[in-house]
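FAQ: What does a ligand-bound record look like?

Like this one, built around zinc ion:
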Amino acid sequence: MQLLTDRLKASPKLLLDGSMGALMMAKGFNGPSIYGANFAHTDVVSGLHRSYFEAGADMVLTNTFSLTGHILSAIGKSAADTVKMAVEAAQIAREGFSGKYIALDLAPCDLSGNEAEQYYMERISAAAGLVDCIFFETYSDSGELKLAIQIARSICSLPVFASMTFNENMASWKGEMLGEAIASVAAERPDAIGINCTLSPSEMLGLIDSLIQAAGGIQTLCEPNRGMPEYIDGEAKYLLSAQDFASGVEAIYSKGVHIVGGCCGSDPECIRLISQRLF
Ligand SMILES: [Zn+2]
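The answer part, i.e. the structure of the complex:
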């Protein structure tokens, strides 16, 4: 199979998957059991990945977003075993397709120093050799993201995608501003850099020019949320239509962001519509 780096050189277009957590919750999983499902319900995790591949996604992100110590002790598994099992679920989903990629998905761990290094070392080492990409997303702290990229580079030569999250005023939860934060992460030369979560496609659109400018020539990526959830009977419902989501992503793509997918609330239908419009 064509390596992801070669594929990206040939064409910057890449369709990512949509949300995993929201779909797992809709299937009755919550908190640690979302990650325990990699072992106990591999077929469910694999089935969700497969539905994204079928919808047209070129790459899926493993069910490993938040493997904190708390979650691992709740499911009674090690980080390495959980990563390996999650990768296996994605590999099962990929069977029968060609030209499809799997990324190890990691989110902020909110640790620092040796603890943070250890966190990333364990998870990336377990996946290196098994996946096509290391994908860091939803970061509010550029310092942690830079550390994560450096550790990934020290362990493997896989492509690294790095994504931060900002509000409409272009500030992260830690108070960093998009331009400075993205430029600082771009200096680590990830293979793609971008923004995900927090905003709907139409809200994210206003951040794109600044993102592309700060990225300094590095490929950019975007994964918006399907709007803000409304809580109906305690359950998060994303009410933005798949059509509106897809046209919002199309507008982002038209500005020059050619690696796109969805974050919270997006589903295979959203990805299918983006695939039909743009890929
Ligand atoms: Zn999100």
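Follow-up question: can I read anything off the structure? Yes, for example: The mean pLDDT is 96.
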